[in-house]
């Protein structure tokens, strides 16, 4: 009955933490492709190939349902995977849609035509690959009209967070917010479009100002997954044990993950 959670590195642990608290009886298998991280600087074909390989590894671990807790993978690979690669008995879900549903105040499964919504000026902070894909804007256009999205590629931020250099990470956040506000001086909402960024949410909020609503994904994805499993209980795979897998050096990744979540995390080789 295990569910897979995939990220290119450690950022998806923010999603794993939220879904584990929301669904404490569900075993989760987490896979970090730390050997090839970060994905945000790779091209779309590379991201697709790596994401498919990681998804297959989670299927082998007994996870028929896999959550791409990686915005770059969700943006650059998911649609292509769903259209031509995923077998009928498996499911792979991304992290964009729950966020956009919250932003546009839609319930899951509301497929009515796009309509005007309260928020009209949105700042998107994401990796370069996610920004290039325009996947957020595409998904948003299915649900809302008249929303101006200004995207800011946050180069270097994932690396700083993964290395635990929070002084550099804070400096980068403030620099990227300044760059965004030169293009969009008064955003109404800001999307943290990378699962690493919730660790810097307070800094984003401080740099943007209290009048800007800041959306991050972990809790929204957790609620969406809980709802999905109620409607699709058959998608619980045959896996029985929670585990942490990595394509990188297991000891080094375990040490960084422990620092990342502030509790002991033990990875093993994928």
From TrEMBL:
InterPro entries listed in its UniProt record: Asp/Glu/hydantoin_racemase, Asp/Glu_race, Asp/Glu_racemase_AS_1, Glu_race
Binding site for substrate: 7-8, 39-40, 71-72, 195-196
GO molecular function per UniProt: glutamate racemase activity
Swiss-Prot/TrEMBL GO biological process terms: cell wall organization; peptidoglycan biosynthetic process; regulation of cell shape
Recorded superkingdom: Bacteria
One Pfam family this sequence matches: Asp_Glu_race
Function: Provides the (R)-glutamate required for cell wall biosynthesis.
Catalytic activity: L-glutamate = D-glutamate
Name recorded for this polypeptide: Glutamate racemase
Alphabetized UniProt keyword annotations: Cell shape, Cell wall biogenesis/degradation, Isomerase, Peptidoglycan synthesis
Keyword Cell wall biogenesis/degradation found: yes
Active-site residues annotated for this sequence: 70 (proton donor/acceptor), 194 (proton donor/acceptor)
Organism: Marivita cryptomonadis
Assigned protein family: Belongs to the aspartate/glutamate racemases family.
Pathway, per record: Cell wall biogenesis; peptidoglycan biosynthesis
């Amino acid at each position: 009955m295990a569910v897979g959670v995939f990220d290119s590195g450690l950022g998806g642990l923010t999603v794993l933490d939220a879904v584990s608290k929301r669904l404490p009886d569900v075993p989760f298998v987490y896979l970090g492709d730390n050997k090839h991280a970060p994905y945000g600087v790779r091209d779309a074909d590379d991201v697709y190939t790596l994401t498919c390989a990681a998804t297959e590894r989670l299927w082998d671990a007994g996870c028929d349902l896999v959550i791409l807790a990686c915005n770059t993978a969700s943006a650059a690979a998911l649609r292509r995977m769903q259209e031509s690669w995923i077998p009928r008995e498996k499911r792979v879900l991304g992290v964009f849609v729950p966020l956009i549903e919250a932003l546009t105040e839609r319930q899951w499964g509301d497929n009515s035509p796009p309509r005007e919504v309260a928020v009209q000026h949105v700042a998107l902070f994401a990796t370069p690959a996610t920004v290039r894909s325009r996947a957020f804007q595409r998904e948003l256009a299915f649900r809302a009209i008249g929303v101006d999205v200004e995207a800011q590629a946050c180069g270097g931020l994932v690396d700083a967070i993964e290395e635990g250099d929070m002084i550099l990470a804070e400096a980068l956040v403030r620099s990227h917010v300044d760059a965004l506000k030169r293009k969009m001086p008064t955003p109404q909402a800001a999307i943290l479009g990378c699962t690493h960024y919730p660790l810097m949410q307070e800094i984003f909020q401080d740099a943007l100002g209290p009048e800007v609503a800041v959306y991050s994904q972990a809790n929204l994805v957790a609620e969406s997954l809980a709802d999905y499993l109620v409607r699709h209980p058959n998608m619980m795979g045959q896996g029985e044990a929670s585990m942490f897998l990595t394509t990188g050096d297991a000891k080094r990744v375990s040490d960084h993950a422990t620092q990342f979540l502030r509790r002991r995390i033990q990875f093993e080789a994928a």
